[in-house]
Write a structure and sequence with these properties.
Blueprint (H helix, E strand, L loop, with lengths): L14 E6 L3 H13 L4 E7 L2 E6 L2 H15 L1 E13 L2 E12 L7 E4 L2 E8 L3 E5 L6 E3 L7 E3 L5 H4 L3
Parallel strand pairs: 1-5
Antiparallel strand pairs: 1-3, 2-3, 4-5, 6-7, 6-10, 7-8, 8-9
């Protein structure tokens, strides 16, 4: 249940949802959720490689960030910064960054010179080496080192 935000200033916000390098489907999901739950947006800023949504409900924004990560796979970073104090209690504003992975489950990627098949995209990236061996778990901060492998037909691959 979303708490009421009546009598708040139109530019009031508790969290910033930063979407970076995301697909149109991820943007559409986020905007549909804002409309469906009637969450007020203080402003929307188009920035290089994405969007910043200034949202009036921090709990909802955090849950939306987690849902985006579960559905699309990618890096989710949640930070809090001290905004002020009210009645002796510290008030924080959240920044939720979601950066979508450039690859999907089942695709073949190159990581540190070796080829892997992406097994899962959840809290971590789970990779299975194509050459055989144990699955490898990697954090999303290593995502920049991973590249989609260009598909090489098997008949050409056998000649290499």
């Amino acid at each position: 249940m979303v708490r009421t935000l009546t009598n708040k200033h139109p530019l009031y916000y508790e969290a910033i949802l930063q979407l970076r390098d995301v697909s149109p489907a991820a943007v559409a999901l986020a905007e549909a959720e804002f409309l469906r739950h009637k969450i007020p947006l203080a402003k929307l800023v188009a920035v290089q490689h994405g969007y910043d949504y200034y949202v009036a409900d921090s709990k909802f924004t955090k849950a939306l960030g987690k849902r985006l990560q579960q559905q699309f796979g990618g890096e989710l970073l949640i930070t809090a910064s001290l905004y002020g104090q009210k009645d002796g209690k510290e008030i924080f504003r959240l920044t939720i960054l979601f950066r979508e992975a450039s690859f999907r489950k089942g695709e073949v990627i190159t990581y540190k010179g070796e080829e892997y098949k992406v097994q899962a995209l959840g809290r971590e990236i789970v990779l299975q080496p194509l050459a055989g061996g144990k699955k490898v778990h990697r954090k999303y901060k290593e995502m920049a080192l991973m590249r989609k492998s260009s598909p090489i037909p098997q008949r050409i691959k056998s000649r290499l």
